[in-house]
Specification:
The complex is a heterodimer. Chain A is built from 23 helices and 23 strands. Chain A is of the alpha+beta class. Chain A has a 5-stranded antiparallel β-sheet, with helices on one face. Chain B is of the alpha/beta class. Helix content of chain B is about 30%, strand content about 30%. Chain B has 4 helices and 6 strands. Chain B has a 6-stranded mixed β-sheet. Chain B starts with a strand and ends with a helix. Classes of the chains: A alpha+beta, B alpha/beta. Chains A and B meet through helix 3, strand 3 and helix 5 of A and strand 2 of B. Strand 3 of chain A pairs parallel with strand 2 of chain B. The structure holds guanosine-5'-diphosphate and magnesium ion.
């Protein structure tokens, strides 16, 4: 026998609000549960349990469901699920409604779950919290990863950008670690060095870089100096495949780690060439000098080298006539053949004749075998007849015939031999005077001076003295092993500029060698110079500058004094009358007269 | 006074309860207390001079432990889909709940809220992920229950849409 649900005492056990659906609506059964009225209702004490059914949005919704359930004829309870309506019941009141059927009776049961009575809550809470914190950890991880990734990408990007800029500027970069080992070499640097980076990375500067050991050592040395004292190191690399490259190497500390070094390489080859174009050539073939006089010589050499005619090179002793002759040969189509210099001075007729034209065995005493002369040896090439003014007249006659016929006859023979030789002649004498004196054949003179080239004495191109001195200084200190001597003292250079150099460039070269041998310090001092230079009054009284320079000096002085001549004369250390005279001589016209 | 039922839908802990709390009582708590059942709140809004009582059903999050009971959606005139900007997976859940809502109650207006905008630095959700939803929503908004940013505006926008439809 089923227990009657109307047994109110029994219903009290459920501590629930129980309604029975009647024709009029829902009717509350039994006692009120201990939780009724819930805290939210305390303000509205009037509210009856039945009124709650009308007021609760949730229950209104649920009653539709329940109705359908009851009508479906299904048995068993139909639960609403937990809900909470703070406005009606208060914040913490969680309720659940259940629709049940008993025979034809329909009941609605309302139960309350206190926060701790909802069994599923703690489990769910824990599960979701765990899921959240896991997600957070994953997010954090992913974020860090992404950040690191983007930071890495960013720094890689930055590095690429910097490299691109450096490359764009033509700057190669080499990084060196604390152990002086190369750790990085940029594309541009590897370009400039023309070597495989694999051969450089991991090796020391001196081992790895394709520079002269000296240069690498200088770069290393720079790295050891404090930043402010460092200077750009200039390195010239002889290219195997291409022409030499001039590099400027700047040594920088790695800003992130001062024990590391960054080398910035800059290709200055082009700049060097531009500079050379700007200042004009300082060297031509092996001739040194950039004075207008020398530049004119270079031009003339270029012009006449290619014309296959005899050339008379005329210049004081020691001016470099042989170098000019070599240059002429070098720049001529004959440059693949021999260049033979012959000194015509101090030789007897027969000796010089046999040297030039050869001889047959027994042609003269001591001619023990057939001998080929220079004309034959130089076949296809160039013969320099140096000091041609000293050539004996007899030989002059033969030479003239050789030049006219293009054939020689060896001494003691009668058979002419064809020769193809370009003849260059050099002299330090005034050949015309020799002709006048009858010591030189006029017809030969005309023949050999088809083209003429005059080399200026050193005193006429004093501005080249510093250039020449440094060049010879460098050559000689290497040749003499005087690497300890670092430079030429300014006073020494001054006496070079003052001296008259009767022996010209050759004398200057000799003087430097002499000085280097005698030099005991780091600089070449006037006291190291040969006696003619070191003591005695200056050999020339006039200004150490050649005329164009004097003109410039005067113009500069006038500009400086805004045209005031008296002051300008004072600056130049000239008397006023000398100054005025020079103005007229140099044809310096002043716009406005002395103010 | 017109009454309209709306539902808040979204994965657990996206901030549904917090959004409602922000709207209804203007407060926010960092403490997470998962909603076990349905929580029903009311809010009176004034939309262009017209008073509207919004009955807000904050449904528990949809996950492996609790599935949203479709019947709770019935009678809604609109809904709010909530996504947590710091959790990608909440986008999918929102998408599924959107489907459920469309199936259950038809094409009613809804707004899409990307919550926790105060934590935007930690956001992993990007706009393309929600492009399907955003095309259909009557409003897509970045909001924060914590700061209140965009919260009332979102509810108002939905109300306006509901009144129009
Ligand atoms: N920072 C921040 N946290 C929020 C925001 N909204 C909700 N939360 C937090 O997120 C967690 C879940 O919020 P809750 O409202 O319970 O989410 P629900 O499960 O969707 O109802 C709680 O710890 C809230 O404090 C927000 O806009 N910003
Ligand atoms: Mg919640």
């Amino acid at each position: 026998m089923a227990v009657s649900i109307h047994d109110h005492a029994l219903l009290g056990v459920f501590d629930a609000l129980i309604f029975q659906k009647t024709a009029k609506g829902f009717e509350h059964l039994g006692d009120l549960p201990s939780w009724f009225p819930p805290p939210g209702l305390s303000r509205e004490t009037e509210l009856s349990p039945e009124q709650i059914l009308d007021r609760s949005f949730f229950l209104q919704h649920f009653l539709h469901e329940a109705q359908a359930w009851w009508e479906s004829g299904k048995t068993g309870p139909w639960k609403s699920g937990l809900w909470n309506e703070p406005a009606l019941f208060g914040e913490d009141v969680v309720l659940e409604a259940t629709a049940v059927r008993h025979g034809s009776f329909r009941y609605l049961i309302l139960q309350r779950f206190g926060p701790d009575m909802v069994p599923i809550q703690p489990l769910l809470q824990k599960a979701r919290e765990e899921q959240l914190s896991h997600r957070q950890a994953v997010n954090h991880h992913e974020r860090t990863e992404a950040q690191l990734g983007s930071r890495l990408a960013k720094s890689e990007q930055e590095r690429d950008d910097v490299m691109a800029v450096l490359d764009g500027l033509g700057l190669g970069t080499i990084m060196i670690d604390a152990n002086r080992v190369v750790t990085f070499i940029s594309g541009k640097a590897h370009d400039l060095l023309q070597t495989d980076p694999a051969r450089i990375i991991g090796r020391t500067l001196i081992d790895g870089l394709p520079w002269k050991e000296d240069d690498s050592a200088r770069v290393e040395e720079m790295g050891r100096l404090p930043g402010a004292q460092r200077q750009v190191v200039r390195v010239v690399m002889d290219g195997k495949k291409r022409s030499a490259t001039a590099l400027e190497v700047e040594v920088q500390d790695d800003p992130r780690d001062p024990r590391k070094t960054i080398l910035l390489l800059k290709d200055v080859t082009e700049m060097e060439e531009l500079r050379r174009l700007l200042v004009g050539p300082t060297q031509f073939q092996n001739l040194i000098g950039k004075s207008p006089a020398m530049r004119a010589v270079y031009e003339r050499i270029r012009d006449i080298a290619v014309v296959d005619v005899p050339v008379l090179i005329d210049g004081e002793t020691g001016t470099g006539k042989e170098l000019v002759a070599r240059a002429l040969h070098q720049l001529s189509p004959r440059h693949d053949h021999l260049f033979l210099p012959v000194n015509c001075a101090g030789l007897t007729d027969s000796l010089l004749g046999s040297q030039l034209f050869g001889h047959k065995r027994g042609a003269f005493t001591g001619a023990i075998s057939d001998h080929e002369g220079f004309f034959e040896s130089a076949e296809g090439g160039t013969l320099l007849l140096d000091e041609i003014g000293d050539m004996p007249l007899a030989i002059q006659t033969t030479l003239l015939r050789v030049l006219q016929e293009g054939e020689i006859i060896r001494l003691g023979e009668s058979r002419p031999r064809k020769v193809n030789v370009r003849v260059l002649a050099a002299t330090n004498q005034h050949l015309q005077e020799l002709v006048d004196k009858g010591a030189f054949r006029a017809d030969l003179l005309y023949r050999i001076r088809v083209a003429r080239l005059r080399l200026p004495p050193l005193r006429e191109r004093r501005e080249d003295i510093p250039l020449l001195s440094t060049a010879f200084f460098e050559q000689s200190r290497v040749a003499l092993g005087k690497m300890g001597v670092l430079d030429i003292a300014p006073e020494t250079m001054q006496s070079f500029l003052r001296y008259s150099w009767p022996g010209n460039v050759r004398e200057l070269k000799g003087a430097l060698e002499y000085a280097l041998i005698h030099c005991r310090g780091g600089s070449v001092l006037p006291s190291d110079l040969p006696p003619e230079l070191s003591d005695g009054p200056p050999a020339v009284q006039s200004s150490p500058f050649s005329k164009p320079n004097e003109r410039q000096l005067i113009l500069d002085a006038l500009a400086q004094t805004k045209g005031k001549r008296a002051q300008a004369a004072k600056i130049l250390g000239m008397s006023r009358s000398t100054f005025y005279r020079r103005l007229t001589e140099l044809e310096i016209v002043q716009e406005d007269s002395d103010r | 006074m017109i009454q309209k039922k709306i539902c808040l839908l979204g994965a657990f802990a996206v901030g549904k309860t917090s959004l409602v709390k922000r709207l209804v009582s203007g407060i926010f708590s960092d403490k997470y207390l998962t909603t076990v059942g349905v929580k029903i709140d009311q809010k009176k809004l004034s939309i262009r001079g017209q008073d509207l009582m919004m009955v807000i059903w904050d449904l528990y999050g949809d996950d492996d432990f609790q599935k949203v009971r479709a019947s709770y959606l019935q009678g809604s005139s609109g809904y709010i889909l909530v996504i947590d900007g710091t959790r990608k997976e909440t986008v999918d859940v929102a998408g599924k709940l959107h489907e459920l809502a469309q199936k259950t109650i038809g094409p009613v207006p809804f707004v899409l809220l990307l919550n926790k905008h105060d934590l935007v630095d930690e956001w992993v959700v990007e706009c393309p992920m929600v492009s399907d939803l955003r095309d259909q929503a009557c409003l897509v908004s970045m909001v924060s229950a914590k700061t209140g940013e965009g919260v009332e505006a979102a509810f108002t926008a939905l109300s306006e849409a509901m009144l129009r439809s």
